[in-house]
Input
Amino acid sequence: MPLKILHCADLHLGYETHGRLDPATGLNTRLLDFRRSFDVLVDRAVADDVDLFLFAGDAYRTADPTPTQQRQFAEALRPVLDAGIPVAMVVGNHDHPVSFGKASSVDIFGVLDGAVDVFAQPTFRAEGEPGGPIQTKAGPLQLVALPWPIRSKILARDEYRGKTPHEIRETIESYYTAFVQQCAAEADPAVPLVVCAHLTVQGSELSGSERASLIAHEPTFTVAQLAQPGVDYVALGHIHRFQDRNAQAHAAGEGPPVVYSSSIERISFKEHDAEKGFVLVDIDPAGAPGRRTTFEFVPTPARRFVPIAVDATEAPDPTAAVLAEIARHDIADAVVRVRYRVGEEQPAVDEAAVRAALADADTIAAVERELDAVERRQRTVVRTDTSLKEAVERYVDQHETLAKLKDDLVAAALEIEREVDAAGA
Output
């Protein structure tokens, strides 16, 4: 009987950028978007009666989720536990606290009713190892769990103090690689073997939002280091774009799938063209030769992000040019951003008309004029009554090198503002 796994990652509950207060629930609409997509994958897990719910890290936006965010995650996960489906979770970089010794944001799930295993350090679950293999209704499963490597734990050891960031990275890479090799060598070949990791695989295609969050000297691994002989599937989290990093070898029967499942919702406009969803995995013990693994990507109803860019510098009527471009896009129920370019000598764009044309959108993220370098240098004034969002945007507009990070910097500033407001409440 095939062993069925639902593999998901990067929920990032807590992103509220481009959201608003929902009057019916009192919650941010973006939190409701994430909950909706999470409910879809949970419903699929229960409907398909999967044998394991495998979560590859990053449950929340930060390591200090609010009680509301924790409640949303626990409530959404409850049907899986009620159905008797075991849950295995590795801790991601967003789940880890900065301070050494603190619990991660997902440790609480290890004490919930039901079979929930949370892995905060490299762990091998197999016969003869602590805890033994993961027990599922389809039989035992061997699991190599590789959470995000915590530098603070490594630096707390005397032998690693004083090492450079590059040396620390090499230490982590060597340790993780040797750990996977040892586990694969010791695994029972008659029992399915899965690696679940929250980390970066070399050559992975980024969806965009990770570019600002990838840490300098972050450990990276090759496909071969994870897809050791005997491994049936490698479940990955951390990169938000669905992809099989070992597709050619797997198609030729020469290795397992090495799959990033994608995140379940879009984080920023950099992810506007990335599919969002999760992966259903079948490990068939009757495959030839030996076990054969197949998988299916299942999309979630992620909120669409629609960026609209208009160069109206040659248009006799810039407003009409912007409206015409909007009409070419499906903006219904989407988060929409409009950026337009006009010359100083042209008529001003009627932004009220533009916003009226965006009435079918769920959220208008911005309607803004793009400035050339000269205008950016001229427009440097930030008054005391300027909003934080506007102040950050003006600062970015004055620095060409920051242009690609604009959405991420604004989102980070608003997140800090929200946390400060909450702390002072």
